[in-house]
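quick one, 321 residues, struct below
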Amino acid sequence: MGTQADLTTAVEPLRAELVVHCYRMLGSVPEAEDAVQDTMLRAWRAWDRYDESRASVRTWLYRIATNVCLTALEGRARRPLPTSLGAPSADPDAPLTPDFEVPWLQPLPDTHLPRDPADRVAERHSVRLALVAALQLLPPRQRAALVLRDVLAFSAAEVAAQLETTTASVNSALQRARATLADADLREDELTDPDDPAVRETVERYVRAFEAADVAALVGLLSADVVLEMPPVPLWYLGPEDYGRFIARVFAMRGAGWRMVPLGANGQPALAAYAPGPDGTHRLHTLQVLTVTAQGIARNVVFQDPQVFAAFGLDEELSPR
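---
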């Protein structure tokens, strides 16, 4: 077998894509990074037993990483978003009480996506927030089978080897997983490219309206069935009217003069929202991940979790302009 230097040369280029794979499985960036660290440690220990005639290094590493994730998922509750936990609220003044007992789904910074433009476009589709949320509905082994087969395009035989099962079992798991995702109503036909000029214009208009605390302008950018949800607060709102009533409450509490910093998350437009302070500074308030369709902004998942802020490397405060 090759040297440890050979292993480093072989595996380091795959580290970034393994983080994305583990994120799809686990729904958390810190957990995904920990899983990849564990994967690399196991690979180092097993390198002298690796047989290149049986599998490529990439296939071998994905097998290790997937099993690390499956072990991590044993006995764990799934990572949801508020929309999967109950009915929408119609009360814009409902208490904003966070529930940190729930292991909420977290967003993925676009810095984890490939740099190559073609690869980046392909990867966006497979990490969008709605899809990752739907994956969390699947039992772990179904989740693994679907990601390995449908997202990463391993053959059924390769997936069976990675999961130490039969091809028939893989195909059965895939059938059930695909049926669950079909019921999740992911609206594939509404997917838009975040680099599309129309999408960029919509986001820019949203930024201007939010910074000015202009509720009417914000509501005018929303689709008829827009969803607003705010983990770790287990509340969500449906439709432009309730979205507008709630955001009016936020602006009444925080005032105008916000600053919005454009980002990317899960291959979608995202914004770090900084609320105005009394001294001319702006304090980090939320991270907003937008789903923009031809009908307008269809979803805004608003995160207010220090762990999410840390994953995106966000400054806690912005200096006066």
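Residues 4-97+113-186 form a domain with the Butyryl-CoA Dehydrogenase, subunit A; domain 3 fold (CATH 1.20.140.160).
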